[in-house]
Amino acid sequence: xxxxxxxxxxxxxxxxxxxxxxxxxxxxxxxxxxxxxxxxxxxxxxxxxxxxxxxxxxxxxxxxxxxxxxxxxxxxxxxxxxxxxxxxxxxxxxxxxxxxxxxxxx
Length: 106
Fold this sequence. Notes:
Elements: E1 2-4, E2 32-34, E3 51-56, E4 62-65, H1 67-70, H2 79-82, E5 86-88, E6 96-103
């Protein structure tokens, strides 16, 4: 079972709802674009160039995850089958969704 800490604020900032974002306002905001078809593919079928993101369905926190962490899972499992193994350490819920895709603006 993997435990991930989804981050909402920049590094060094306290994790509170009142935290002020330190994102540069002149830079365009990035959004993750999931490739929904890849949720049903086995891990070994997903190309190595894809980005993986874990989203907590309860509190909507998101965290990019390294493929090496997923390679520890059985390679015949799909992202949909692996998702229930993740727990959000921000809210404590076991309600994750793992997505493969890319960032807008990349």
